């Protein structure tokens, strides 16, 4: 009996996810932002490894640690977004009446409601890192190559795509009542930061 319920939940979740990937929705925002960041991180690492000048198979460009930081943070951010996509699909497809929540469902609900806002801190931080890359690739002779300039362009396009997509989704997605976070009196620094981060996406 439990196995049949689990299979039904999985099929309902998969159907809900696939049915909402096209267009503008919470699912498409989480999914495509996550996939873009994961693909962007892999592409960034590949291009940097392929086109960075080397001596005795050692990368001489001093931006390698910065690139590794961006790649790592984008992977964390991307995996987080894809996880939220799955969690949101599971909650929405299996809990239509929102009665008798299990602990796992409650946990996923909290993740979906609050994690997207704070994960954007990572996104802002990687913007600062990309600007640092621009300086390094422009002024350090060992980093100033055509291949690395292309790497910088790919990084910038990835970052701005996720940002603009988030802004568009923020304007066009109607937040469900159970996820809606009402405005509160601005009484703390963290509240101010939270409100700013919420403008970057639903």
UniProtKB/TrEMBL annotation:
Spans through the membrane: 26-47, 67-91, 122-140, 146-168
Keyword Membrane: yes
Highest taxon of source: Eukaryota
Alphabetical UniProt keywords: Membrane, Transmembrane, Transmembrane helix
Protein name per the record: Transmembrane protein
């Amino acid at each position: 009996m439990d196995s049949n319920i689990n299979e039904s939940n999985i099929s309902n979740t998969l159907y809900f996810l696939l049915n909402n990937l096209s267009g503008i929705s919470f699912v498409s925002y989480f999914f495509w932002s996550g996939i873009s960041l994961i693909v962007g991180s892999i592409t960034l690492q590949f291009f940097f490894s392929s086109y960075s000048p080397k001596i005795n198979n050692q990368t001489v460009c001093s931006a390698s640690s910065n690139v590794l930081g961006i790649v790592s943070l984008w992977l964390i951010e991307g995996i987080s977004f894809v996880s939220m996509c799955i969690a949101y699909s599971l909650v929405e497809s299996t809990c239509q009446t929102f009665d008798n929540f299990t602990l796992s469902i409650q946990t996923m609900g909290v993740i979906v409601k609050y994690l997207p806002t704070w994960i954007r801190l990572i996104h802002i931080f990687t913007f600062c890192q990309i600007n640092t890359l621009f300086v390094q690739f422009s002024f350090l002779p060992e980093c100033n190559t055509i291949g690395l300039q292309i790497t910088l362009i790919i990084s910038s396009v990835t970052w701005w795509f996720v940002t603009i997509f988030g802004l568009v989704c923020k304007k066009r997605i109607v937040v469900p009542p159970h996820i809606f976070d009402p405005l509160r009196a601005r009484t703390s620094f963290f509240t101010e930061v939270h409100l700013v981060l919420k403008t970057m996406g639903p």
